[in-house]
Amino acid sequence: MWNPFKKKEEDVQPSNGTSSKEPAKKESIEQRIEREIDSLPGMIKNKLKDPQIKQRFIDIAKRMEKDGVDFKSIRQMKKWIKTHEAQLKAEQAGGVPKVETVVHEGPKIGRNDPCPCGSGKKYKKCCGKDK
User: Fold this and answer.
1) How far is CA 88 from CA 33, 65, 67, 84, in A?
2) Average pLDDT over residues 43-65
3) Which of 22, 41, 53, 117 is a good FRET partner for 87, with 20 to 30 A between their CA atoms?
4) Distant-in-sequence, close-in-space partners of 37: CB < 8 Å, separation ≥ 6
5) Which residue has the higher pLDDT, 88 or 19?
6) Cα 102 from chain centroid?
7) Confidence band of 1 (pLDDT split at 50, 70, 90)
8) What distance lies between CA 113 and its chain's CA centroid?
């Protein structure tokens, strides 16, 4: 069936003079984003000036393309983002260091016990004074 929206394949003539059809080179994600950056909304266009955000945008687009998402379908892109939302948030939070709980080993020192530093004073009057 004929589709008016389908791009026509161009015949490429090799330099040796024989006629053969070679597949046209596919445009990379980076090239498509650079080409279409002006058509994006202003808010996104301004954020893409930051190289880190632009690289993250490209990485996500590559993953979507790998999973077979049609970029012309907003519905498919939203569905992909929704299914990968937890993974994307975990990757974004990966730069934030995780807080670890401090666990003291050894016996607990009471307020009225002798100070472990060896001063002979009570803990509450020596090292535990500001606690």
Assistant:
1) 20, 16, 15, 6
2) 83
3) 41
4) 45, 48
5) 88
6) 30
7) low
8) 52
Q: Which amino acid is at 46?
A: N
Evaluate whether 46 touches 37 at the Cβ level (below 8 Å).
Answer: no
Does 94 score more than 50 pLDDT?
Answer: yes
In single-letter form, the type of residue at position 2 comes to W
- What does the alpha-carbon distance between residue 16 and residue 20 come to, in Å, rounded to a whole number? 11
- R_g of the chain computed on alpha carbons: 31
- CA–CA distances in Å: residue 20 to residues 10, 13, 16, 23, 63: 11, 7, 11, 10, 33
Looking at residue 121, its pLDDT comes to 92
Q: What is the mean pLDDT of residues 1-30?
A: 54
The residue whose two tokens read 């994600």 is 29
What phi, psi does 17 have (nearest 5°)?
Answer: 95, -15
* Distance (Å) of CA 72 to CA 27, 65, 68, 77, 78: 15, 12, 12, 9, 12
What gap in Å lies between CA 58 and CA 52, rounded to an integer? 10
